[in-house]
Amino acid sequence: MHDGCGGCFQNGKQVADQVRMMGYDRTALAAPFEIDCGHCKSPFLMETMVAACPHCEMVYAVTPCHSHSREHVMPAGIGY
Q: Whole-model pTM?
């Protein structure tokens, strides 16, 4: 799809930065993911490619190429 989409990312900040650079951060996921926040342990529904836990603001990101699978979602940091 895009050069950066299939790239190898070391962490969630790199994923979030790439998705934001491509302009897809507010793009809806085809099927939202229920995420158990790794920081506060609260469940929430991730509906866009970059989303924050509503309880603690931990940001999670996934590239468009990998948005079909929750296993590719990576945490980027609180408030990132």
A: 0.90
